[in-house]
Design brief:
The complex is a heterodimer. By secondary structure, chain A is α/β, with parallel strands linked by helices. Chain A is built from 18 helices and 13 strands. In chain A, helix 13 packs across helix 15 and helix 15 crosses helix 16. By secondary structure, chain B is of the alpha+beta class. The chains are: A alpha/beta, B alpha+beta.
């Protein structure tokens, strides 16, 4: 069987301090419920510089300058042990400051909703025209025109006609509502959707600049963020995917959006793999941008405990799935795990459904999997908020499942966790940390002969949508390429099946005689 | 479970820990309990 392959992956982080304060849902909820709170007074003192954010070790792991397991050698707290000589440019991606990103938001805005103050716009235009990845975007021409003056911005924001864009505490722009009264096109929704689109488009462009694929190669795009675009007649109608591909010049591509909360990326990658393996499309890209609402989600606890606001980055990723090239890691589409409607919601039932069942069906033992990329949230973010070390909890559950199944001895449980685990290194942006942050590292490690098989796991909290109490989860296996490509449309399995059929026919003819 | 007997129970489950519904199932095995609120929250 010719499996599809993981051709490449790219990652982006955008540090967005002012969005933490003005658009993060924890802070906007506080403004609504408790406007004089200590948290709102204190949070500004806990915001870190772009340089500190770049040098933060987990961020360097996310953009590929260090490996996730390198974090084990860096003393905690990581925010007190920045990497020396860290750069915003990464092997697998890039970190961008907020002012440049606001320029991207204006560039990708197809309906002239984004206004930037004149001097700010001129400054970021200059920077973006010199940016190695995006300088070729035709849409940067938008930064030549329609600039705003300060009184206009003040009036639009004060009149609740636009969502503010702050940089270093100063109002430098806004996103206008796209309809007088349609809630699905409000200034708030348009802001979130443009953040998602711009960060995804930036990351897709990084995929082009850091891997071999060109925009014209892409035939299908699956977008898998957690936002919804549409109007009052079809809220969530879509289609982020094509709007992102349009920015990057993917003229030969069509696409669609896939949703399942944090499990969306894993679903999308399985779908992309199926489309390639079926021969429908040769090159499929799975892409997602960041969520401004989730910035500073646990900031109350961080501020209260004297930590920096560590959830200050929008995340994005883009993954290329292509036909078997005999080199890139294969996606084992015959070992896909799924949490079914009947699986149950207990942690053990979830792990059984998405980790144990697919391996059982394929006759593969847990010990045959070298590592698991689960939900790779940075524990330094979640532990102070009382949510624990999410990846470690997942690893313990997987190892315990292995003990229950007789794959491992109980005494070996801690050793198994040690072997299969890696520290969390991704920002708490919902779908962003869910399995996918490891893919570029995975490809690299397999290329170096240091890894043979990894399971990618995505889980989603469907109950947050208040339509069902169900949980969700999907997993798939990435495996080192054997180097053998089946040719001519007939593989070994097919030949075996043809011989068996011929023998049966021959046997039947003998019986008839 | 003695501490829960004949109590009204409010449950706050964690999506990455024990979900509310799973805690609810356990609590139901204790006599005289009444689950008055149950939710599962997501912090990531």
């Amino acid at each position: 069987m010719n499996f599809p392959v993981l051709k490449g992956a790219a990652y982006a982080l955008i540090q967005a301090n002012d969005m933490v304060v003005h658009q993060g849902s924890t802070q906007t909820s506080e403004v609504r419920l408790n406007p004089d709170s200590e948290h709102l007074k204190e949070i500004h003192k806990h915001l870190r510089s772009f340089e500190d954010c770049v040098a933060y070790p987990p961020n360097q792991a996310y953009i590929g300058n260090i490996r996730p397991k390198d974090l084990n050698g860096i003393a905690r707290p990581w925010y007190e042990n920045p990497l020396k000589d860290a750069t915003r440019d990464g092997k697998h991606g890039e970190m961008m400051p907020l002012d440049e990103f606001y320029g991207l938001m204006k560039a990708v805005d197809a309906f002239d909703l984004v206004l930037l103050e004149e001097s700010f716009q001129n400054r970021v235009q200059e920077r973006l025209l010199a940016h190695p990845a995006v300088k070729g975007w035709k849409m940067l021409e938008k930064l030549n025109k329609n600039h705003a003056q300060q009184p206009q911005l003040d009036e639009l924001v004060a009149g609740h006609k636009a969502e503010p864009m702050y940089f270093e505490g100063k109002l430098i722009g806004c996103v206008k509502k796209a309809h007088d009264f349609d809630a699905a096109l409000s200034e708030h929704v348009m802001f979130e959707n443009l953040v998602s689109k711009a960060s995804a488009a930036f990351c897709l462009q990084l995929l082009f600049s850091k891997t071999g694929i060109t925009p014209s190669d892409v035939e299908y795009i699956i977008e898998c963020s957690e936002e919804a675009c549409g109007d009052m007649n079809q809220r969530g109608g879509g289609n982020f995917a094509k709007s992102i591909g349009e920015v990057c010049g993917c003229l030969n591509a069509t696409g669609s959006d896939t949703r399942s909360f944090c499990a969306g990326p894993a679903h999308a990658l399985v779908e992309a793999s199926a489309l390639v393996q079926a021969g429908i499309y040769k090159n499929v890209v799975v892409v997602a941008g960041g969520a401004s609402a989730k910035l500073g989600l646990n900031a109350k606890d961080h501020v209260k405990k004297g930590l920096p606001v560590l959830e200050d980055c929008l995340g994005a990723f883009a993954v290329h799935i292509g036909e078997n090239d005999g080199v890139s890691p294969v996606i084992r589409t015959d070992i896909v795990g799924r949490h079914t409607i009947g699986s149950g919601a207990s942690p053990q039932a979830v792990m059984q459904a998405i980790v144990a069942n697919p391996l059982d069906n394929a006759g593969v033992k847990l010990k045959d999997i070298d590592t698991f990329s689960v939900e790779m949230q940075n524990p330094e973010i979640t532990e102070p908020a009382g949510a624990g070390d999410v990846p470690k909890a997942n690893y313990k559950m997987i190892a315990a499942l292995g003990v229950m199944r007789g794959d491992f001895e109980k005494a070996d449980l801690n050793n198994v966790v040690e072997r299969i685990a890696m520290p969390g290194f991704a920002p708490t942006q919902g779908h962003i940390p869910s399995g996918v942050p490891f893919l570029a590292h995975c490809k690299e490690l397999m290329g170096e002969g240091k890894l043979n098989r990894a399971m990618i796991v995505g889980k989603g909290s469907l109950f947050l949508g208040r339509l069902t109490n169900l949980f969700d989860g999907v997993s798939f296996i990435v495996e080192k390429n054997s180097g053998v490509i089946s040719g001519g449309g007939v593989d070994k399995d097919a030949v075996r099946a043809m011989i068996a059929e011929a023998m049966q026919g021959f046997a039947a003819s003998l019986r008839a005689e | 479970m003695g501490i829960l007997e004949n109590k009204k129970i409010a449950i706050l489950g964690d999506r990455d820990g024990i979900p509310g519904m799973a805690i609810e199932e356990c609590v139901k095995t204790v006599s005289g309990t009444e689950v008055v609120f149950s939710t599962t929250e997501c912090f990531v």
